[in-house]
């Protein structure tokens, strides 16, 4: 089979989408089409998402040998092993593509000029516009945060997966208003009380999916216990943003020591703190968690316990908001947000930062 894949962003980063077409190598017949919107991210991330979608479709169709054709020189050279993958945000996507490649007997990458990749390009643009695939019916299985359907008043005909997004309870870093990323700060006594209150508010769920850091795991355990002992599943992609050299510092300290870097970071989600991780990189991994939860628990209520940055990014993409949202949305410790995801790609944000359950603390 032949996979033609592409991705694009209107701005870099900007509104992004991917497209992929699977063809019969002998007849040229279109066997499958994939497209999906990715919220705000970079052109290279979108190109990798297109590759992943195309390989996934080919595997589902039972392909044994695949030729991948893309007009992205970067993806073709990196996946062929001739160029290093220097950008940390692309490494997880390349690893995901490599895992898919191992399903086939052989995979060959071929660079083609953009004018020969019009089908995949059209799908990527349709995804960015919120449209279905042109000419052919699309098999839409997004790897990004949303696959935006055309606006419709038609009621959904299948139940939604409701994700109850819970920020962990208070830590000492929270009290002191310090950057708290990968450091494993424990819950304070007040934080434990907040987690118990959140657990009561969340109620019945099918499972709890959590960041691996202890402040989240402890919060998740309380939610699971209150829900009758449902499973707690660790998902590394839910970990907080890596703030690099800013870890454990206050905003004022960072602004004093890295004024230019701080301004750039506030201006663009593509910019990372020194030795840290950008919000675009966080968004790419968190979107994978959203897709895994949707696939594993269709039509069920699931608690997702994480940190400020991952939860904000899920809400941003669910609301189709711009990058400014990240600096205008406030999430309290143990605050609760809710998002419904329907199988057809429909999304409804039900709540943002509910805190009534914390009123007595």
Descriptors:
361 residues; alpha/beta; Nucleotidyltransferase, domain 5; Rossmann fold; six-stranded mixed beta sheet; five-stranded mixed beta sheet; 11 strands; 36% helix
What does this protein structure show overall?
InterPro entries: His_Pase_superF_clade-1 (IPR013078), His_PPase_superfam (IPR029033), PGM_Phosphatase (IPR050275), RNaseH-like_sf (IPR012337), RNaseH/PGlycerate_mutase (IPR014636), RNaseH_domain (IPR002156), RNaseH_sf (IPR036397). It contains twelve helices and eleven strands. The protein is of the alpha/beta class and 361 residues long. It folds into two domains: 2-129, 2-Layer Sandwich (Nucleotidyltransferase, domain 5), CATH 3.30.420.10; 161-358, Phosphoglycerate mutase-like (Rossmann fold, 3-Layer(aba) Sandwich), CATH 3.40.50.1240. The strands form two sheets. It has a six-stranded mixed beta sheet with strand order 8-7-9-6-10-11. Helix 6 (189-202) packs across helix 7. The longest helix has 18 residues, at 43-60. It is globular, with a radius of gyration of 21 Å. Mean pLDDT is 90; it is low at 135-151.
- The number of helical elements comes to 12
Determine Rg (CA atoms, Å): 21 Å
CATH topology of the largest domain: Rossmann fold
- How confident is the prediction overall: mean pLDDT? 90
**Spatial gap, N to C terminus:** 60 Å
- Largest pleated sheet: 6 strands, mixed
Can you tell me the CATH superfamily of the largest domain?
A: Phosphoglycerate mutase-like
**Gross geometry:** globular
Secondary structure class reads alpha/beta
CATH architecture of the largest domain: 3-Layer(aba) Sandwich
Count of separate structural domains: 2
Organism: Planosporangium thailandense
InterPro entries: His_Pase_superF_clade-1, His_PPase_superfam, PGM_Phosphatase, RNaseH-like_sf, RNaseH/PGlycerate_mutase, RNaseH_domain, RNaseH_sf
Protein name: Bifunctional RNase H/acid phosphatase
Pfam families: His_Phos_1, RVT_3
């Amino acid at each position: 089979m032949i996979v033609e894949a592409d991705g694009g962003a209107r701005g870099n980063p900007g509104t992004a989408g991917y497209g992929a077409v699977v063809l019969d190598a002998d007849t040229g017949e279109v066997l499958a089409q994939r497209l999906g919107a990715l919220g705000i991210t970079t052109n290279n991330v979108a190109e990798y998402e297109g590759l992943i979608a195309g390989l996934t479709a080919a595997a589902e169709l039972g392909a044994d040998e695949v030729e991948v054709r893309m007009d992205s020189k970067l993806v073709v050279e990196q996946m062929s092993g001739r160029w290093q993958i220097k950008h940390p945000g692309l490494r997880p996507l390349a690893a995901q593509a490599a895992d898919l490649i191992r399903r086939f007997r052989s995979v060959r990458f071929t660079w083609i000029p953009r004018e020969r990749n019009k089908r995949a390009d059209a799908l990527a643009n349709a995804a960015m516009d919120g449209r279905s695939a042109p000419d052919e019916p699309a098999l839409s299985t997004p790897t990004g945060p949303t696959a935006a359907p055309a606006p419709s008043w038609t009621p959904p005909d299948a139940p939604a997966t409701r994700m109850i997004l819970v920020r962990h309870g208070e830590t000492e870093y929270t009290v002191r208003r310090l950057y708290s990323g990968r450091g494993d700060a424990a819950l304070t006594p007040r934080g434990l009380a907040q987690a118990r209150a959140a657990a009561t508010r969340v109620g019945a769920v099918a499972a709890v999916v959590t960041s691996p850091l202890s402040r989240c795991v402890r919060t998740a355990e309380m939610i699971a216990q209150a829900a009758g002992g449902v499973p707690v599943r660790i998902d590394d992609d839910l970990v907080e943003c890596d703030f690099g050299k800013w870890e454990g510092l206050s905003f004022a300290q960072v602004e004093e020591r890295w004024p230019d870097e701080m301004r750039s970071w506030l201006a663009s989600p593509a910019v990372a703190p020194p030795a840290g991780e950008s919000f675009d990189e966080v968004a790419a991994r968190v979107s994978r968690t959203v897709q895994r939860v949707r696939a594993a628990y269709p039509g069920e209520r699931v608690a997702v316990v994480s940190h400020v940055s991952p939860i904000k990014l899920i809400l941003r993409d669910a609301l189709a908001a711009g990058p400014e949202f990240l600096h205008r949305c406030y999430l309290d410790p143990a605050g609760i947000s809710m998002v419904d995801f329907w199988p057809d790609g429909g999304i409804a944000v039900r709540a943002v930062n509910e805190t009534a359950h914390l009123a007595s603390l």
